[in-house]
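explain this.
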Amino acid sequence: MSALRPLFALAWRESRFARRRLLLFLSSISLGVGALVATQSFAANLAAGVRDQSRSLLGADASLSANKPFGPKTETLLRGLEHSGVPVARVTTFASMVISPATLGTRLVQVRAVEPGFPFYGQIETAPAGRWAGLASGRNAVVDPAVLAALEIRVGDSISLGETRFRVAGTLEKVPGEVGIGNLFAPRVYIPASTVAATKLVRFGSRAQYEAFIRLPAPGAAKAILQAHRGVLRSERVQSRTADEAQQQLGDALRRLGSYLSLVGTFALLLGGIGVASAMGAYMAQKRETVATLRCLGATAPQVIVIYLAQAGVMGLAGAALGALLGAATQWVLPRLIQDMLPVHIGTALDGRALLTGVGVGVWVAVAFALLPLLQTRSVSPLEAIRRRLDAGGGAAARADGPVWLARALLAASVVLLVIFQAGDWKTGVGFTAGIGLTLLALWGTALLVTRLMRGARMARLAYPARQGLANLYRPGNQTRVVVLALGFGVFLLATLYLVQDNLLRPLRTGANGARANMVMFDVQEDQAAGVAALVSADGARVLQRAAIVPMRIAEINGHAPAAPGAAADTGDAGPAEGRPSADSGGAERQGSGGRGQGGAGGGGRRSNGWAVRREYRSTFRDSLVGSEKLVQGKFWSASTPAPAPGQPAEVSLEKGIAEELSVKLGDRITWDVQGVRIPTTVTSIREVDWRRLEPNFFAVFPSQALAGAPQTWVLMAQAPAPAARAKIQSDVVGRFSNVAVIDLTQVQAALNEVLDRVAMVIRFLAAFSVATGFVVLLGAILTSRLQRIRESVLLRTLGATRRQIGAILLAEYLALGIAASLAGIGLSAVGGWALCKWVFEMDFGLPVLPLLGLAAAVSVLSALVGLWASREVFRHTPLEMLREE
């Protein structure tokens, strides 16, 4: 250590005259460390919020839920708990239309009818304060503020739900465990449970969720009680959950979110490492004469490397410390961007581990990325101290010998280990590393292609400034590859995010040309369907589609009864919105629920996933395919197909995915239980359904004559271009048929857009660090070739070039760099977006050309402006300086 002390002292003294130039080095690390500290502190606060608010998330120690009223055994269990002094509060949740008698405004809402005592943990805050406690004292309602805005009413006014009026006692400020932004689709309205029957909204065919919340003397008792009654709950298809399970499930999901955000911050830091390498290259290009002098005075190559590596470490520490402060400031912003999307309150406390990790990783990245440029000093000859090299501005590349390969291996290992550490899982980390590595490799290859194309291009017809600027992209000492790599990666992140968001929303867009429906009416009773259709037509709209909904369950498959439900009884509500307009949910149930339970009997004794045989199906009957369906196997019947003979099975058409889950094929037999009536069927066709389209889609479709007499409700899809017409239809239909819910799909689209915008805002915020780092790398590239550019400028001015022509040359070069980086990033984002849409979201891919070109233009212009600003020194030197040097 004593031998290194003089070297450290020399490093400190030698840096006194160049600390301003090292600010670029410092800023490269600061941006990356800031992103990393912010995301890690955010993840730590997420975990703390879940841990501290675990009981408030559920509102009780345990809960039971089902999509139909609890069976007699479950009711006996609940009454027994109540008789033993255990508090139980029931909540019934359903969708309905609310109407203002004063303004005649309407709005689809989520009604939650609660018994006194709910929630047992946490506190529902209202405005004015304290109104929740008086909810059960009469026909009162506590509503989301969005309801007041939509109906143009105030606290104290009346609203109608079904056939009952309620007084708005207050508005909701905070509900523990609920996601605020989720209420964009259907704002909450809380009413007393005792008033549900009077509304007459819950009837046959209505989708309702029945819940019972239980508060136990000891938290550990919840798991024991539910395990003791698991058989009862399974037999009546009742789901159960404890507060610990809710905490674990949410904690796992939020840990994945925190890891993802940390990875985004890590990538910004790695780009900062590229900025470090660029800045250190620029710094060492200006220090060649100093290095040569040190070599003349007897310093060895390793000693020179230690001197400047010590400077890199100190500046890395300073940059990391500044980045930690930046991350601390960012931590006050990040939770506010995403708070409405999470069911827990997120604190803004700084996490000590995140600060130490950020600073430590920042210093390590600074040293690791600075090492390769420092190895170039081994090629500096002592003679350079007395003889100037004309190509000193560019510097020579390090020889690919043992130390260089060792440094490269160290750098690669550092990157892989860092990503794995942030991902929390080696498989995820390796996958992300491979993906980012391929992206950077593609950007590097693009930069090489650009330089070769520029070298071989015929540019004789271009103006001289344009020719000279484009030629700079391939001349010795150019930084084209580094700039395209760093700046292109930031563009890649932003463009990929936009592409995914645009493609997710595209199937939901409603048009005014009559091609797509923009209104849906559901929970329409059989005797109301004709009246609802007549009202819609009278208001100038067109009914585009009608679909009957018949609830049923599977009784047998090929003569085998389904196996008993698995450990977690399925309510059939986890998957696509079967029988309701559904968008972008295709396959969600099959992917998310496929592992539940032990399965049921499939065709020929095969085993199928339990959820598919346990769920309640909402099927339909019709004699033709619709636009969201495609026949893939078998033959679909027509209206002229004769009815089967008495005792013979009817035909049924299954969706492709559900057929795979049930392990059935064409010719297999399925017996359905329709309200106690057994209906045998034969599978005669398999359909592929586009669940993303806002249309009524179904797993099972029957011929009309098979279910015509079954109990049923209806869904109607209509098209009304004008907003005023849609509002009138909502008011007229709800005014006459209070149980019918009417949705304006343009509002759904706007709500989904806002949700995705909020998600995108967070990722854009973090991706901005990467873009900013890209511009820092551009500054480093300009400083690297600073001496060379000054000599070229002075020589051109000696030959008669004007300042304007020199400015045009620089503008052409930096604008070309920006265009190359932007187009490379957007091209890779198109590939990445296509892959995500195809394999993750399972949807068609579209390329929004104009917005992406706008992004490319913005980045290119900024690149040109930053380049010109950083090249101001080029204009300050006169031709006389060149003559004096010679």
In short: The chain is about 50% helix and 15% strand. The first helix runs from residue 5 to 14. The two ends are 46 Å apart (CA to CA).
